[in-house]
Write a structure and sequence with these properties.
single chain; 280 residues; alpha/beta; binds zinc ion; 11 strands; four-stranded antiparallel sheet
Amino acid sequence: MEEVNCPICEASGGEPLHLEGSFRMVRCPSCQFIFLNPRPTMDSLLRFYQEYLPEEGPSIESWEKMMRPVFHRAANLLKQYGREGRLLDVGTGFGFFLVEMKKRGWEAAGVDISQKAMDYARDVLGLTILPGPLEKADFPDNHFHAVTAFYVVEHLSHPMAFFRECHRILKPGGLLLLRYPHTTPIKNLLQFFGIKNRLYDLPAHLSDFSPKMIQQCLEKIGFEKYQHLIGGYTLPGDLGKRTSSILFGGFAEALFCLSGKKFLFPGVSKTVLAFKGNLK
Ligand SMILES: [Zn+2]
């Protein structure tokens, strides 16, 4: 474990916010970013991710089923914005999103740090996967029409470097699609009622982005236009988790539509689209 400064603004110190076991989420006194501190070192994280995804066939299938509705919505969004061509999915896992996008005519490749996930995506699904992290893959400037990352940003030690790299490798007019959890509002609520939980999934998650924070970061990097939305919900295999995902996700979608696509229900996962420069 190592003590770190704020991964967004580099300010030191942090007000303790929530505990999960021996792990502590803190809030940056300067930019309000919520992050794990102290956190595992980069080396221990890389080892941890070799075991993070399920290994057995049935677990891989249920993982695919869980993510399917979110992948489907994302694929439709890319179509809605008239995007086609070359796509990179970062933290692609077993590669099921790439399969969907290839079916839709995209030239799609992925990056991942898990050797097991890479082996599966390459050997079983026949996909093109490069070993991560993204910065190591060394793609040319202005290369992709779209970059996607599902449930990745909350795992990153250096999110700003990641956003910068996404911006660099996107073509002008290219689109970045990020899917991320937003857990702090639920943690606050459960804490108020004294209900213990491990919703932050520490130490796997190193931070918790709010929509406002993610937009500020993307603006700082140079992305010019955004759209935030709920973007569907996952369908976990566990009945209780699936029910609450449908209930809260469905409710959040309904409120989002009723508010004229403005209200982002706190606490549920969100999707953000960010554009590099003008649409072309
Ligand atoms: Zn900060």
